[in-house]
Amino acid sequence: MPLDYHINRTGTVVPSHNNDKVNNYYLQNVNMDGYFLLISLEPNQALLVKFPDRMNFFDRYSGIDTGGMNNGVLHGKGDHYLLANVAAALFGVAAVLKDTHSIHISFGDMSADNGSDPWSPGSVDHAGHGHGSRSGLDVDFRYIDNGGYSFHGKMNNKNFSKKNNEIVYQVAETFGFKKNYQGKMAKLSGIPTAGGHDDHGHLGFGS
Amino acid sequence: MKVLSEVLLLSLTLFISGCNYSNGQITHPQKTSIDQPSNTNELRSKVKNTEVQPYDLRNSIGQLKTTDDAVKAGKVDIYQKDGSFWYSYKFIEDNGEKPEKNEYFKPFRYSGDGYIVFNLVGESKDFYEVVSNEETGDKKFVKKNSPLFERQKWEKYILDCYAIEFDSDSNPLHSSPKGGNVVELSSAPTLFFPVEISGDWLKVKWNDGGDKSKDENRGWVKWRGNGQMIIRLFETS
Fold this sequence. Notes:
The complex is a heterodimer of chains A (207) and B (237). Chain A is built from two helices and twelve strands; from the N terminus they run βββββββββαββαβ.
């Protein structure tokens, strides 16, 4: 059943029933004295919503995965699908990053439209994002540079901002992303390290 | 995020059950149950049976992968056996424009996002020979003096991966790289993380049931057997 999500900039999201066929996402305004309708998203058959590629406070990187069969798994189309409540939390993350910290973030792989991990011929394999039990819960992002923008590069790049990236993880945790990883170069304090993340960060919803 | 409504909990519960039983579109592999060991000295591992497609390494002398400079360059050039130009693989522009497609270019890993990983199968004075099409086995050439490529070992690539899976029936987990006891798993772990490599053996660590609050376990599994890579790689989470 579709819900209205009221997204507070403090990190809470309040769901309530609506009579629509879509989930409505209301974002608290910058002054935190009201809400405005940010976007409406219709759940698909896998009960996921397509997170938009870009709005004026975030965007996406890389091409869109085509899906296909790989190692016995039918990967669905696309790479920007999330559970409805996770999408609400991610809107909140991006909005707080932009309005409070002047950080413009670019998101990468989430899940495919059927809930599988996103994949295209030739691409690397994900262990989460729909592989195993984590469907619609995981989000990749490009690391933030000193100017506050996501950039295409690794953690050892001279433009990599320790401060800005630590802010990303801190804000994400406020909104419920607590299964997070940085690369093994380990430039950030307090964030677990994991292989395969030197050129992008990983936000996982839930504990 | 604080869940402030039972409605949301109900919705999530419905989704979780939907993952298992819904319209057949979700493709999560099902975990198999774990047999109890009959003898603790001869323990039997039972990991979910992953579909692992062996990868032939018999002719491989390593990998050739793009460097960070390749992203800045925006493209890399591939050559034919006689040294003539064959194809430029262009990476995706920030505007999302996709690179020109070449149906004959299908190396081990490639993405318009900025990386190519070739299976390296030969070298001459001036060129590396790489598998340019994994489906047909066709080979092409890369200039050795190109700063956009670097050679690396398969072992390094595997250890840089986030996690691996393997078929526990044909390739069980052991207590040492010399074989030793087969390691029992008290519950099915969700992921095995690479730690180190000794010859054909890969040391992995895992948490029972994927619960990171539990003690970390370690064991050894074969990553290479009969000249083939027999584990599945998950390069990222």
